[in-house]
Specification:
- The longest helix has 30 residues, at 220-249.
- The chain has 16 helices and 9 strands.
- The protein is globular.
- By secondary structure, the protein is of the alpha/beta class.
- The protein folds into 2 domains: 3-180, NAD(P)-binding Rossmann-like Domain (Rossmann fold, 3-Layer(aba) Sandwich); 198-266 and 298-324, no CATH class.
- It binds nicotinamide-adenine-dinucleotide and magnesium ion (4 copies).
- This is Ketol-acid reductoisomerase (NADP(+)).
- Its EC number is 1.1.1.86.
Length: 330
């Protein structure tokens, strides 16, 4: 394991360089503002008249078209949604990259699966926070940082890693620590994590538990508290000090029940399916499906979103969070 901290960063490598952040969404906002506040020369590239344009210029950022930003940038840090990066690269970035420039990402998707193929004389780097943009900005403002990953897919200039680390320091990540990885490892593990464990796994587990209780006749509100609300409390204990800390904090009843029963919930069949899901990520099968979906205007995603909106747990949860003052606006 190779971990980098502030002390390992040579900030001078970006001193006379401009970082063009493309996009001002979750990561674009957080990273561009952190980098600017850290003293890096930052410009933001956006679509003219898009919603982000006003937000970014109101925040005092130097905003311009994607083409102009890519032209000005010695480093072009691409922070727009993964599924449109390939198109925007072709139309607005590719021709603006010059020998010795760096193209940078926070997810290896488009490089790893070959949707973006920069010329041989361009550095290809990644600096990726392990956390959502809101956290990246908030932690920075509070004087901390979220941890991150760094990777170099191509080092054309000899200092690609230095450049990526200096960006990481600007974004506040090297304060917590930045772990070295590869584009392949980051991309495949990130996709697997969000599908099987985090976004897909957690919501699937919560909802299955919720439905089991409701179908058995228990109050939906009780089911919500038990399967959804308490999830955060348990995960917080694990996040802080590991499984052992959580097992220690819950009752012996919960500890015995949890340890003795869990293999009946996550079964050999589940593990087999996890391996299959990982295989489809590694072979590019998932990526192909996502591309087909996007080319068709995202019909499946839109219908899945509607089904998700209609879930009973979503209705019960909204009502309950409001009643308990748990849901803050925003
Ligand atoms: P996002 O969906 O929040 O990005 C939206 C931004 O992209 C907006 O500013 C929008 O104006 C801009 N945009 C959209 N289409 C555009 C176009 N055609 N031309 C120019 N700008 C356009 O994106 P995100 O979630 O911040 O993700 C950005 C990258 O960061 C992705 O590679 C993602 O995988 C990675 N990442 C995201 C997170 C996260 O927490 N969201 C975490 C780690 C890595
Ligand atoms: Mg991830
Ligand atoms: Mg991801
Ligand atoms: Mg309980
Ligand atoms: Mg205990």
């Amino acid at each position: 394991m190779k971990m980098y901290y502030n002390k390992d960063v040579d900030a001078n490598v970006l001193k006379n360089k401009t970082v063009a952040v493309i996009g001002y969404g979750s990561q674009g906002l957080a990273q561009s503002r952190n980098m600017a506040d850290s003293g890096l020369n930052v410009v933001v590239g956006l679509r003219k008249n898009g919603n982000s344009w006003k937000a970014a210029s109101d925040a005092g950022m130097d905003v311009m078209s994607v083409e102009d930003a890519a032209e000005q940038g010695d480093v072009v840090h691409v922070l727009i949604p993964d599924e449109i990066q390939g198109k925007v690269y072709e139309t607005s970035i590719k021709d603006k990259l010059e020998e010795g420039n760096t193209i940078s990402f926070s997810h290896g998707y488009n490089i790893h699966y070959g949707y973006i193929k920069p010329a041989e004389n361009i550095n290809i780097t990644m600096i990726a926070p392990k956390g959502p943009g809101s956290m990246v900005r908030q932690q920075y403002l509070e004087g901390f940082g979220v941890p991150g990953l760094v990777a170099v897919e191509r080092d054309a200039t000899g200092d690609a890693l230095k450049i990526a680390l200096a960006m990481g320091q600007g974004a506040g990540l090297t304060k917590a620590g930045v772990l070295e990885t590869t584009f392949k490892e980051e991309t495949e593990t990130d996709l697997f994590g969000e599908q099987a464990v985090l976004c897909g796994g957690v919501t699937g587990l919560i909802n299955a538990g919720f439905q089991t209780l409701v179908e058995a006749g228990y109050q939906p509100e009780i089911a919500y508290f038990e399967t959804c609300h308490e999830m955060k409390l348990i995960v917080d204990l694990i996040y802080k000090k590991g499984f052992g800390n959580m097992w220690h904090d819950v009752s012996n009843t919960a500890e015995f029940g949890g340890l003795a029963i869990r293999d009946r919930i996550v079964t050999d069949e589940t593990r087999k399916e996890m391996k299959q899901v990982l295989k489809e990520i590694q072979t590019g099968e998932f990526t192909k499906e996502f591309a087909t979906e996007n080319n068709a205007g995202a019909p499946m995603l839109n219908s899945l979103r509607r089904i998700e909106d209609d879930l009973q747990i979503e209705k019960v949860g909204a009502k309950l969070r409001k009643a308990c003052g748990l849901q803050k606006e925003d």
